[in-house]
Amino acid sequence: MQAAIDAYFEECKGELLTDKEGKAVLDKYGAPIYLNRRPPTVTGLALALGFTSRQALLNYQAKDNFVDTVTRAKTRIEQYTEERLFDREGVQGAKFSLVNNFSGWREKGANPADSQQEQQGNMQALVELLKHPAPDRNLKDFEGDDDR
Fold first, then answer.
1. Which domain holds residue 96?
2. Is 88 helix (H, G, I), strand (E, B) or coil?
3. CA-closest candidate to residue 102, choices 77, 127, 83, 66
4. What is the tens place of the pLDDT at every residue in 41-65?
5. Would you say the pTM of this structure is higher than 0.85?
6. Can you tell me the distance from the alpha carbon of 47 to that of 141, in angstroms, rounded to the nearest whole number?
7. Do the domain assignments include residue 46?
């Protein structure tokens, strides 16, 4: 699964445009030009992994064997999306994606019932995970102020 995830992110980078001599073609600001570059998304990741929908990937994320792998991939997407908050072109789409695809992101004044429902879902997923912990996972790894 990790190989497919890595391939997805590599594909999102696009293909470097080169001239006849093999040198990178630059835009007017001196940045290299990439063809077919696209932002990584949760739906795109789901499709690249062979799932039929974004929700199918989110459901699969709860499985013990894949929770860390899928969570890390989603965190890479979250990082990219969060970085888009700082550029003018991507800010609205980034806000929408963060609020709808990642926990902990919510517009001020958003419906608290939605947040409570999300928290209940997260708690249920945690309960299921704790019922069947992965044999090589130590719960102490998740305690404290660790940023992993």
1. 2-134
2. coil
3. 77
4. 999 999 999 999 999 998 998 888 8
5. no
6. 31
7. yes
Q: Which residue has the tokens 């499709």?
A: 47
Tell me 31's DSSP state.
Answer: P
CB-based contact 32:8 (threshold 8 Å): no
Phi, psi at residue 26, to the nearest 5°? -110, 150
Question: What is the H or E stretch that residue 35 is in?
Answer: strand 34-35
Tell me how many domains the chain contains: 1
Place of tokens 């704790």: 130
In a domain, 107, yes or no: yes
CATH code of 29's domain: 1.10.132
* Residue written as token pair 């080169």: 18
pLDDT tens figures, 79-134 = 999 999 998 888 899 999 999 888 888 876 656 566 677 777 777 777 776 666 66
Residue 140 lies in a domain: no
Contact 14, 37 (CB under 8 A): yes
Residue 143 covered by a domain: no
